[in-house]
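Troubleshooting log. The previous run stalled partway through. Resubmitting the same two chains, unchanged.
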Amino acid sequence: MKKRKMFIRMITASLMRRRSRMVVALLSIAIGATILSGLVSIYYDVPRQMGAEFRNYGANMIFTAGDDAFTLDDVRAGQSKIDSTQIVGVAPYRYENVRINDIPVVAAGTDPEGAKKASPYWRVEGEWFTGDSQLLIGASVAESFRLKAGDTIEVSYSPVSENDETTSDGEDEFVLDTYKPFTVMGVLQTGGSEENYIYMSLDALTELTGEEGTLDVAELSVSADAEQLAGYISEINGSVKNVHASLVKRVTASEATVLTKLQALVLLVTIVVLALTMICVATTMTAVVAERRKEIGLRKAIGASDKSIIQEFMGESMLLGLLGGLLGAVLGFVFAQQVSINVFSSSISFRPLLLPVTVLASIAVTGISSLMPIRSATDVDPALVLKGE
Amino acid sequence: MFFRMIRGTLFRQWKKMLMIAFTIALGASLASAMLSVMLDVGDKVNQELKTYGANITVVPKENSVLTNLYEVEDGGVSGAYLQEDELGKIKTIFWAFNIVDFAPFVNVDATLDDGTEVQCVGSWFDHHMDLPTGETLDAGVVSLRSWWELTEGSWLDEQLSANSADEVMVGKDLAEKLGVKAGDSLHLNGPASDKNMKVAGIYDAGGTEDMQIYMQLDTAQALADLEGRVDKIEVSALTTPENELSERAAKDPSSLTVAQMETWTCTAYASSICYQIQQVITDSVAAPVRQVADSEGAILSKTQLLMILITILSLIGAALGICNLVTASVMERSQEIGLMKAIGAHNLSVALLVLCEIFITAIIGGVAGFFAGFGFAQLIGHTVFGSAIEMRPMVVPIVAVLVVLVTLIGSIPAIRMLLGLRPTEVLHGR
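Second attempt completed without errors. Output:
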């Protein structure tokens, strides 16, 4: 009991009395630990955070009709198989051929909120449609009809089969065309084929065509990795009868490639930085111990065994490692949090496991790096050291 | 005498000096590796993002409205086309170096013998071009559609022109519907001529292309009698993320002031590349594909910001590490300095001596560290991106300034302490 008390007293006393040197050593250990915990948190968080950025590319999963008619309820059923926190947006689409000034145009009925989230790259000049008598027109349509936001147009629909429509040119005797006036709320620019369509709410399309109709496709933007996505696909295809789910390969395949590379980049950078800081910590500890050869010599001269000297020095450096590790783990989390807020404007989740790992790693590094110089110091003949040779 | 003393320290105390040099080298290598990677990461990630395909499409002016809107059904003989012989001009614009890939497309509707209508697309596969600038470029769908997966057979090889003109690639779904396999033959009746084709391979595109047939550009043109014409060009270009200026310019380039115009044309915005493509291709409209262009910008800027912050952290780490060791190693020499002062050295000459020694060591360590760091950067580049990291001249001055500054800051407290030493106390060993 007494011996241990003395041991602790010696360690703390040497830390306190040689304050400035110890602060320097502590600082370098803390930096090492900060880099370790900060970069490792970033490494684990990059796929999640970057994954969210990649959702800018739009839908990565689509639902199409299975065997039977495909309705909004089927989409909901399929959607329920996916973890709701991972769903970024769901946009159902129903396409119909309609006419503006007797010229055929493809109209898409959708949910504006879902479409906005599933296709964040859509650029709308003006406003999105909200009501049933409002619509969004593609840029090419706007150009060919000389339309702009705020204009009012009438959209007509011929409830006949398409073959009749082309041959009789709309002059069908039996079924009358239905008309519905709309206000153009905005012009859609995507650089893709979406510019050739007009967009309205599902209800508006139902009202125009006079029938409930089935959906053609539903686009889902899901923030999950390739494996999870494949799991969802097989689960939905297996259990939801009316839905055929498939991945948008162009988006998922490319995302996987780029994300893997990014993570590999952060990992390699972490390893390089970590290796270099470890060497820095090691050199600092070597310098700290080398300074105290005289003290070691003196202690040996008054009869201390090699073992007790090594124990005391190791205890001291491990205490330093513990303090530095704790400090570094906290600072590292703060750093990772700052990075996350600045870069991705979202906070990082705290990984409890990282705290003991950082502390243990810094204790191990300081312990190992001071073991070597202490060993060599204890080998020295006390008489020679004290004499100053 | 001064130089002799310095030389003496460097040679006789080489172990201590080596340790300082080593630490400085470590710090310098960390700094130069991180800076090189950071400065190059934008280009590298941009290159990776090219797997998403083309970010600019070029279509004929009239056609941009016509094709889809009027659902032209007579095989697309509706008038507007781009000229095939102008394709090479895309690589002559100011931003030619940023254009990594491009391919022309021509759509032809054909029927099979059993009456099935199929959509045929003619394009380049691995087209080899000798540009007027003396460079060569291999472009085509093989690289532009990198996400396509070959399920059977092989890609068309344009270089073996003898066979490939009679070969086609069939989409997965269409192949399933028709029941064809690689090696089978198909008889295609185009609007102008018909031809027997061999199926070279089946691809899985995961999209609408799975219902199409891809073939060589000339073959498709011959089917519809459209020699020398193309419907669409897809261009994959390295671009800078869009900002307010580029958006304004994209709407109306003439609204810019002269200075703004200069900035705009001299920055690789998707819109300014589009503008220049429109100038070289007759009657064309080039537009950025928002899905790709916007997302690229977002991801690129995030990655760069991430790397900048990591670099700053490692620079701080490197700087503090160097500082620490320089301080520690100078303080160790208190006895030597005490002796010097005891035999009458001035404070100034002591400080100068110590600084000189440290700086010579720092320069040696810094140079070694710089090259080691460049090596680290190459290691990262090759492992992650499979290509070398470009050497940026600006890394050299940054690392040099960093090393000098850090060494100086690290030695100041130590030197102050040394100057405050009283020779008698030191020599007495207290």
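Takeaways: Chain B has a mean pLDDT of 80. The CA atoms of residues 86 and 95 of chain B lie 17 Å apart.
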